[in-house]
Design goal:
The structure holds two protein chains of two kinds. Chain A is built from nine helices and ten strands. By secondary structure, chain A is an alpha/beta fold. Chain A folds into two domains: 215 residues, Rossmann fold; 69 residues, no CATH class. In chain A, helix 2 links the parallel strand 1 and strand 2. The longest helix of chain A has 19 residues. Chain B has five domains: 206 residues, 3-Layer(aba) Sandwich (Rossmann fold), CATH 3.40.50.300; 84 residues, Elongation Factor Tu (Ef-tu), domain 3; 110 residues, Translation factors (Elongation Factor Tu (Ef-tu), domain 3), CATH 2.40.30.10; 162 residues, P-loop containing nucleotide triphosphate hydrolases (Rossmann fold), CATH 3.40.50.300; 166 residues, P-loop containing nucleotide triphosphate hydrolases (Rossmann fold, 3-Layer(aba) Sandwich). Chain B is globular, with a radius of gyration of 34 Å. The two termini of chain B are 45 Å apart. Chain B is 31% helix and 26% strand. The chains are: A alpha/beta, B alpha/beta. At the A-B interface, helix 1, helix 2, helix 6 and helix 7 of A face helix 4, strand 10, strand 25, strand 26 and helix 19 of B.
Chain lengths: 296, 780
């Protein structure tokens, strides 16, 4: 019998969690940022459901995303026949309440274009755009029903606040996360009962580290956006966000294997992953402030 | 690259009483094991000097909290670091009593535990409480650290006394520490390095003890157990696999293995172990998230446990004795109903008896208690709303573990120590045998449900002797029948004087009457029927006996009459004063609410939305055959349907040629007609070769609801069929532009449905199309 290595075990646990989510939530969706973590999560979903993804993927488009991320999204959505939904905060974008070209600071911009947009997309108050697979165009989705289960690709090792998360993490009606009052989780049993009006975030990648993610991408040959790799100018993105607030890092790594090597022994062995993300530095409490209010 | 995918990682939960020195110990461990970032130690020392505070290793943890790099991660709950040989995840279980929920969450994820005891204070509340929880949670590898040996002058006698005391306490809980280590974390003695002051100690240092822990693998040696998480059937994209999915908790399974599912007792063989893209494995083992197809279409659901027929079976009952711990804000009480979750089963639960409750901190015991307080552990008999499958903890631990939900929150957990008989045990044994011997037909339960637009359901209508249940049941039957449901009224007398003719009327025979009623009901439910049974004054035990014989969750009860005169907890209560008409409506609504009717049937009052279903594919691929089936089915469901056939329409336009522009014009013509019909409420089912993608897309653009069905039967199969001899003629060069031979076919890139009639039956292909239609009409 083949022995199970640490990636096999991480994979099995994540698949178990995805299947529990699917069995327990009638209104279930998955957030897909097009980044490496949620793309791994998407891959795991195809494994969990034997080649299918039986719930919609939700992408919150701030309209400041690097263009290549959008084309990568649409290509995989077509290839894997995904139910692809896109939401955005159109009011804030129209009023130019954005950063740096608009009227608000970085943290407020994040709050409006991501947190607020996400909350309204999930509860159905905001417009959802659904990909029409025959035309490739996005059309207004007539379905406005709220989602009660949301699968999110956060990892406990990313930054302080995420380490306090549970696999199944309840949110109140206003999307607020109560860090102090978290339910216990043990023996593959999770909070799947909930009072009307609450919804639950499901975190199948909680136990994965950045290194695990890259090892898995290399092993499974998961298609990832090329921004993660050095294209010859000696830089690559380590973490992807909006173009104005995400900076590439100096790196020669051109493939997932080279990134694994770089993380294990190279310059990043002791530098934080999100160091290229400006909103973390500005928010004194780490991401905790943003997360309490529903940031992914 | 050096073997990148085999890094071992071990999670260790660290417990102990508050202020017994856990932070100092962990700080010291990181520093001495060389796991700290360069210069960190010097930086913290310098900071202490500047602020005039004495340096402590515990400060290291605070100083590292915001540093998150690959080598080390520290936050309030976890310390992640690596030594030369492997990675460690230390899960902190804070000593404060409020954080027991975190201890439980952490310990359940851990493969080993570290308990820290202050040698100068000895065993304290949380030393004992944490030990109890570790034992109940099933953490088997344990090391005890007797910390602060410097405060007892490194005295061996103190260590020996405490060590003996704690070890015998742990032994009583079934915990055997691999080492009890005297440590002085402050000066680093026995953390990584040995010290002269503790020269009398010959055992391992803390780091050596950690390196000695085994990476635990789930038990593949035990009997096969897989709680069923779901049964998947993703008919879209032409996938007709029906896959039983779940995580294997114990044992191994291979294709060909004969399985039994419990509590139903149904039997089938594993056909294939399925993968993401059609690949299959030769074996799946404990720890894996697996999925397989079966050789027979038996009906199993989430909540059942798959076991191998050649191995010991799990217990099936609704009563057991358990050891449990309670975390709820409100005490666990004998007079309330809770929800119990074990594996994937969810079932209402009551505490029948609390044999003993114990406060593990003080070790004070209460016998014959009526409640279990927060943080107590207890020995209880639990009684469930229906039977489930599980194992006693000493046989298969993973399937002995359960949690208790109170008011939406997980409030406790425990292990089954011993299954206990319940009143339905004799009847259930017969049911298990019957299901194991059951002959499964080719028609799966879901298919029947789809055909009848209903879920088989048994309604037990009961009440005092003088009420007119029979008239009500017959009126309800007539009403549902008129709506097209497959429904049957069964009066108790119909059974009593027939099947039960050999039984007496004595109370003694009542259980056998009920068992037989359950068996009759089971046959009718298997046939897909909504069954209405009337009987006077049914009791809870009557209901339990009937339920033991039929599939879980398909029995509902209604009580007609003023007061409930038995111990039955009816799902619905009806007052005769409401009048016959109103009562029929209420029962009908109640059955709909309980999913007896499928949602599409509930909406049957409104005419179904029209659509255009467009079959494209090579000549002789089976387009028309499947289209005819779909047309017949949709007509039967009350749709206005028009069949458009490419060849028949061509007869009206004999001048239309076969070159590309002519073919596309033909497709557009049919498409226009289809879209006009759709606009007037007709569902159009069109079958045309329609070989060009652009022409098909122009039709799609005209229609509101468009389902493109690619009949993807391979060319060689189509040519083999060749019913009209056209392929043969085309091969002889008699037909110039024949698609597939002398002209190209552009397959759709994103059809709503793909069916290959060389692989599936006409009926299966038809259902895949209807599923596709459902998806397009009602996106999930």
């Amino acid at each position: 019998m083949k022995t199970q290595d640490h990636l096999d075990r991480l994979e099995a646990r994540s698949i178990h969690l995805l299947r529990e989510g699917y069995a327990n939530f009638r209104r279930l969706c998955m957030l897909w940022s097009i980044g490496k973590d949620s793309t791994v999560l998407l891959w795991l979903s195809r494994k969990a459901f034997f080649g299918h993804v039986p719930f919609p993927l939700v992408h919150i488009d701030t309209s400041y995303k690097i263009p290549e991320m959008i084309s990568h999204r649409d290509r995989l959505a077509r290839e894997w026949r995904l139910t692809m939904l896109v939401g955005r905060n159109e009011a804030a974008l129209e009023a130019k309440r954005t950063f740096p070209d608009g009227t608000v600071d970085r943290i407020t911009c994040c709050g409006l274009l991501k947190t607020e947009a996400l909350a309204r997309t999930l509860d159905g108050e905001g417009v959802r755009y659904r990909m029409n697979h025959s035309t490739g165009a996005y059309e207004i989705d007539p379905d406005r029903e709220p989602y009660t289960g949301v699968i999110v690709g956060v990892r406990a090792d990313e930054e302080g606040s995420r380490s306090k998360e549970r696999y199944f993490s309840p949110r109140s009606t206003r999307n607020i996360w109560d860090v102090g009052e978290q339910p216990p989780e043990f023996w593959n049993q999770f909070k799947t009962e909930f009072a009307p009006g609450t919804h639950v975030r499901i975190h199948p990648l909680l136990d994965w580290t950045e290194l695990d993610i890259w090892e898995y991408i290399a092993r499974e040959k998961i298609p990832t956006v090329s921004l993660y790799y050095n294209q010859g100018d000696g830089t690559r993105y380590r973490s992807l966000g909006c173009a104005p607030c995400t900076k590439p890092v100096r790196s020669e790594a051109r493939t997932p294997e080279e990134i694994v090597e770089e993380l294990r022994s190279g310059q990043f062995a002791r530098v934080a992953e999100r160091s290229g993300r400006a909103q973390d530095a500005e928010d004194g409490g780490g991401l905790e402030t943003l997360r309490r209010e529903g940031y992914m | 690259m050096t073997a990148p995918f085999t890094r071992p990682r071990l999670s260790i939960v660290v417990g102990g009483h508050v202020d017994h020195g856990k932070s100092t110990l962990v700080g010291r461990l990181l520093a001495d094991a060389g796991a700290l970032p360069e210069g960190k130690l010097e930086q913290v020392r310098a900071l202490c000097e500047k602020t005039g505070r004495p340096f402590e290793y515990a400060f290291l943890l605070d100083a590292l909290k915001d540093e998150r790099a690959q080598g080390i991660t520290i936050d309030t709950a976890r310390v992640f670091f690596s030594t030369g040989s492997r990675e460690y995840l230390l899960l902190d279980a804070p000593g404060h009593v409020e954080f027991v929920r975190n201890l439980v969450t952490g310990a359940a994820r851990a493969e080993a535990a570290l308990l820290v005891v202050d040698a100068s204070e000895g065993l304290q509340e949380n030393s004992r409480r944490h030990a109890y929880l570790l034992s109940l949670l099933g953490v088997r590898q344990l090391v005890v650290v007797m910390n602060k040996m410097d405060l007892v002058r490194y005295d061996r006698a103190v260590f020996d006394r405490l060590s003996a005391e704690f070890s015998s306490f742990l032994e009583g809980l079934g915990l055997l520490p691999s080492a009890v280590i005297p440590v002085a974390a402050r000066d680093g003695a026995n953390v990584v390095h040995r010290s002269e002051a503790l020269g009398w100690y010959r055992g391992p240092t803390l780091l050596e003890a950690l390196e000695g822990f085994a990476t635990e693998m789930p038990p593949s040696s035990g009997p096969f157990r897989m709680p069923v998480q779901d049964v998947y059937k993703f008919t879209g994209d032409g996938d007709d696999r029906r896959i039983v999915a779940g995580t294997i908790e114990s044992g191994t399974v291979r294709p060909g293995d004969e399985l039994l599912f419990f509590p139903s007792g149904k039997r089938a063989r594993v056909r294939r172990l399925e993968g993401m893209s059609g690949e299959s494995a030769t074996e799946a083992a404990a720890g894996q998230a697996a999925g397989f197809t079966l050789d027979e279409q038996i009906y199993v659901t989430r909540g059942e446990v798959a076991a191998r027929a050649d191995q010991p079976r799990p217990a099936v009952t609704s009563r057991f004795r358990a050891a449990l711990f309670w975390l709820g804000k409100e005490p666990l009480r004998t007079d309330r109903e809770y929800l119990l979750k074990l594996g994937t089963a969810r079932v209402p639960m009551r505490v029948e008896k609390i044999h003993q409750a114990l406060d593990p901190a003080t070790l004070s015991i209460r016998t014959a208690a009526t409640s279990v307080a927060r943080l107590d552990v207890a020995d209880c008999t639990l009684s469930l709303g229906h039977a489930i499958a599980f194992d006693p903890a000493d046989q298969v631990t993973a399937t002995s573990r359960f949690v208790i939900v109170d008011d939406y929150e997980i409030a406790g957990g425990g292990l089954v120590r011993e299954p206990l008989a319940d009143a339905q045990a004799p009847a259930r044994d017969r049911v298990l045998l019957r299901n194991a011997k059951w002959e499964t037909s080719f028609i799966p339960v879901e298919r029947r449900a789809e055909r009848y637009r209903q879920r088989p359901t048994l309604l037990l209508l009961t009440g005092p002797r003088d009420t007119d249940r029979k008239q009500l049941a017959k009126a309800l039957e007539a009403r549902l029948f008129a709506e097209g449901q497959v429904v049957y009224f069964l009066g108790m007398a119909n059974v009593l004087y027939g099947i039960d003719a050999d039984l007496g009327r004595a109370e003694l025979d009542r259980a056998e009457h009920m068992r037989r009623l359950g068996e009759v009901a089971n046959l009718m439910l298997d046939a897909g029927v909504i069954l209405l049974v009337t009987a006077a004054e049914l009791t809870r035990s009557d209901l339990d006996l009937v339920r033991a014989a039929v599939p879980e969750g398909r029995v509902v009860t209604a009580w007609l009459g003023e007061g409930v005169t038995t111990d039955l907890p009816p799902d619905l209560r009806l007052d005769q004063a409401e009048g016959a008409g109103a009562l029929v409506e209420r029962l009908r609504a109640f059955l709909a609410e309980r999913d007896a009717f499928r949602p599409s049937a509930r909406e049957a009052a409104a005419p179904p939305a029209p659509a255009v279903i467009w079959f494209t594919g090579l000549p002789a691929s089976g387009k028309s055959t499947v289209a005819d089936w779909v047309a017949a089915e949709l007509t039967r469901r009350g749709n206005r349907v028009e069949r458009l056939d490419g060849d028949s329409l061509r007869e009206l336009f004999p001048e239309t040629g076969w070159d590309r522009p002519a073919r596309d014009a033909h497709v557009r013509r049919v498409g226009h007609l289809a879209s006009r019909l759709e606009a007037h409420g007709v569902t159009v089912i069109a079958s045309l070769v329609s070989p060009h993608a652009a022409a098909r897309d122009s039709v799609r653009a005209r229609c509101r609801v468009f389902v493109e069905v690619h009949v993807s039967t391979p060319l060689d199969e189509c040519e083999r069929r060749d019913p009209k001899g056209l392929y043969a003629r085309a091969r002889r060069g008699e037909i110039p532009s024949f698609t597939g031979v002398s002209d190209s076919y552009e397959p759709p890139t994103a059809p709503e449905v793909t069916v290959d009639t060389s692989r599936v039956t006409v009926e299966d292909a038809g259902w895949a199309v209807l599923d596709g239609l459902e998806r397009v009409r009602r996106p999930k």
